[in-house]
Amino acid sequence: MSAAATAGPNSILLHRPTSAGPAVASSIRLPARASKVSCAAVAAPSSPHALTGAGERGVYNFAAGPATLPLSVLQKAQAELVDYRGSGMSIMEMSHRGKEFDAAIKKAEADLRALLAVPDTHEVLFLQGGATTQFAAVPLNLCAGASDPVDFVVSGSWSDKAFKEAKKYSAASVAWSGKDGKYTALPQFDAIKQNPEARFLHICSNETIHGVEFKDYPEPKNKSGILVADMSSNFCSKPVDVSRFGIIYAGAQKNVGPSGVTIAIVRKDLVGNAQPITPVMLDYKTHADNASLYNTPPCFAIYICGLVFEDLLAQGGLAEVEKKNQHKAGILYDTIDASGGYFICPVEKSVRSLMNVPFTLAKGADFEKQFIAEAAKEGMLQLKGHRSVGGVRASIYNAMPLSGVEKLVTFMKDFQARNP
Ligand code: PMP
Fold first, then answer.
1. Whole-model pTM above 0.85?
2. What is stated as this protein's family in its record (predicted)?
3. Which domain holds residue 343?
4. How far apart are CA 248 and CA 264, in angstroms?
5. CB of 208 closer than 6 A to ligand 1?
6. Domain total for the chain?
7. Tell me: the pLDDT tens digits for 161-207?
């Protein structure tokens, strides 16, 4: 009996398509909300309809991470979920050393290299433990021991956490801190008090909680020229000259995939010098020597990242993606700035993040609560600011459609008009 002949109400379990897609997709029963989905709508330019629409999935998700993913990616993953490209099993159920996963991880790496123009001088590693684990892995790999000096720009909560963790494995110093200014600015580069003996200079390219983003990067003054960046929340949101960095690392769950995989791009000459106490899983050499397959990798997360990379390439690459991000963020910041002080973004204009837009309401915390609750009723979710700072935060990563930002700013103007 052929597989197709068994098609019936349970056909999703039995049908074995030869290619990803329509056959399977059409046999899956979508939940009520997902039935509103239209692939074309994902990439569709904004329309007046979008101003009143509730998003392709019934809501717009402004979460800081895990965050919204492109609908087309989710649909492709859904179509391939139970039977990955004719294998008869999902990508979660097969050996990470088999040909299917091998092809998926190689393609993901190749596409990421193409997107960011990663030079041959750098390894691309798919790791686990979140960006938080890299806070330890970086000094463990780059410093000979706990007395090696290293420099940190502390521009928000994440770089502060990275600094504190690095102190365990290096002699870490704060070369500049934005704490006194409540993390609303970044330094002029010559104000960073770099130690020329420092092994590396660490920055967080985008502070997810405070919404400050480096638009250019400081030159490390250390002898070996190592600049390290935590790019978790703006990874692949714009082109970056990777050659300027010794290490770039990023948890995937904001711009490029689900939580569970952390990507590190590491200059090859920095691999292989880890401190003797370094756990095997934190030593970049372990992963570089084994093409990120030393142990069982987060297969599904890597696969989804691969789909996101394909999608970003299909959009025309990161220069195009950056233009869209600038446009979306511009609309939101303009609305805040034109509100006559009703909405306030405390971040200095020149370093405002394209990804995370924090703001407060001059009328106070009760109105912020009301704003967030009413927005949620309108299908705009997860707008609450981080618990450490309060207020409102709109995370508008690559996958947030322009229509979501348009709907938000329309709502903001309406809220202001109703609550003067
Ligand atoms: N760095 C930044 C900039 C972040 O936004 C986050 C997570 N929100 C982290 C590090 C920590 O990442 P993870 O949860 O993957 O450890």
1. yes
2. Belongs to the class-V pyridoxal-phosphate-dependent aminotransferase family. SerC subfamily.
3. 60-64+317-418
4. 6
5. yes
6. 2
7. 999 999 999 999 999 999 999 999 999 999 999 999 999 999 999 99
